[in-house]
Each structure stands twice: as structure tokens, then as C-alpha cells.
Amino acid sequence: MTAGPNNTATPSAAAAKVSLRGVTKAFGNNVVLRDFSLDVSAGEVVSLIGASGSGKTTVLRCINLLEQIDDGAVLLDGDEISSVGRDPNPVRRRVGIVFQSFNLFPHMSVARNITLALTEVLGQTTDAARDRASELLRRFGLSEKADVYPDQLSGGQQQRVAIIRALAMKPEVLLLDEITSALDPELVGEVLDVVRELKGSGITMLIATHEMAFAREISDRVCFLHGGTIAEVGAPSELFGAPRDERTKQFLRRVRM
Fold first, then answer.
1. Quick one: pLDDT at residue 67?
2. Is the pTM of this model over 0.85?
3. Which of 3.40.50.720, 3.40.50.300, 3.40.50.1100, 3.60.21.10 would CATH assign to domain 2-254?
């Protein structure tokens, strides 16, 4: 075990499912991540909280190789996946990501949105892919929506389909990027219920979120990001109940729990 900020125990890099070691990422002159390090164990749920621009989304995009880091390393099961020239596609089959904007294909049915990658990327038969989609739609209460199109769904239903699409690939790691921020308040609960269902399933999850009460409920650890670094990390009861860093205290005073 290694120690994070405030001596909070974190998994060693060798034992971590996902590890970021001294990651730096800049967009022009704007340094978004500064010597960022975090280790996440298999099956662990870690939430990233912080103000807009603190680096939460960039952390997830670097793990999924949507962004090329400028320095440091990203590792998956101890294998450095961030090296220049690394093929991202095998990594993305193991690391799924869900965005706040759903990103469903509007001209495809719900079922086809889910099965597309299964048939085109994994090479599954149409029947096998359809069975997988049906299983997941049934699990998350959307069986009757298989043949409709995204614009016939509510925002909450669209986001649930986006999560199902990621889960269909059977990822080892699931990255959730502010998945409720584009939703009307009354639709947030149904999406968060899906994440609650996933906790304990064995999948490793990193969640960038502005839902503080949910982060407190769902997380094994919570990281407060400030200026592209982790200012404080700890168990939810500790970070929310007795934060030590003054920046964490100020942030939590400003948000609604």
C-alpha cells in the first residue's frame, strides 16, 4: 500500500487495476493535470469531485486514451497503456466510458446502438449480440425500448442506454463522466439507480460527479481535485464528514449535499 494525501492508504501501483503515475496534461498553456497520481484497486469505486476545470474529465479521458498525456504514465493491471504509438482499441475494449452527452446514434434503434460494437468490434453474431442487449435492457428495465430510437426516449432513458452500451462490452473498468449533469432533476435518480446496481458487481468504476450525496453513498474513496492535483482523498465518511484540507472545506461549503 502507498499513502495518498493525508496519509490515506491507497493500493500500490503493482496491485492496482488502474494507476496514474505523475501524469501531466496541458492544452496549450493551460496545464490541466499536474503530476497527478492515483491507484485504484480492482472492484473499487472511486469518485472524483471538484470545481469545474479541476481536471476530473481529463483524468477519465487520459485513462481511456482519448487524450495523449504529456508526461507520466497510465497503467492497466501494471501494463503501461499510455506509451506513444500504443493501439488504443484493445484498451478501450477493457475500459468503457460514458459521457454526459449520451452520444447515441440517432438513426439507430436502441438495440442497434448496443449491438453495433459487439458485432463490428468483437465479431459476435447478430443473434449473440441481440441476446446480450436484451439481457441488459431487461436488467435495467428498458426491455420495451429495444426497437425505438433515441429521440423517443427521455434523457434519463438515453443515459441508461449509454451505460448499457458500455456494459455490453463487458469492460473491466467503467468511467462515468458527469453522467447526470445533462438531465432534468427528476431524471437523475433513475440513472444513479443503475450505478447502484453495478456497485458490488466486480467492475472497477471511476466517477466524475457533482452529485455529492451520491458520491458519499456509492464510493469506496472520494478524491477532491483542485488545480489538476488531488488535494485530499479518503473514505466518504472522512472526506465529507471531517475534511482536513482547507480547499476541500471551502468547496464543500459551496455545494449542496
1. 96
2. yes
3. 3.40.50.300
